[in-house]
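seq as requested:
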Amino acid sequence: MNSITGSYSSLISNELNNTMKTLTLLTVFLTLPTLVFSFFGMNVTLPIADQNPFSWMIILILALIFIALIRLALWGRRIS
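struct tokens:
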């Protein structure tokens, strides 16, 4: 009975570890675009002016580049 309980506990622990790893990766991927958008959303003068019609696309592309770089860095370490 102790052996069955121990193996069941180990199985649940492994599933919890995998879930926490996935949630941590999602947090990292969602934090970087939030950082970029919040920086460009401040009410200060920035290099990208409001008069530029492509400023929104430039900020979006910058956020996607950050996501791709983090993905490559994590993939290089075999984390994800």
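The helical segments are 2-40, 55-76.
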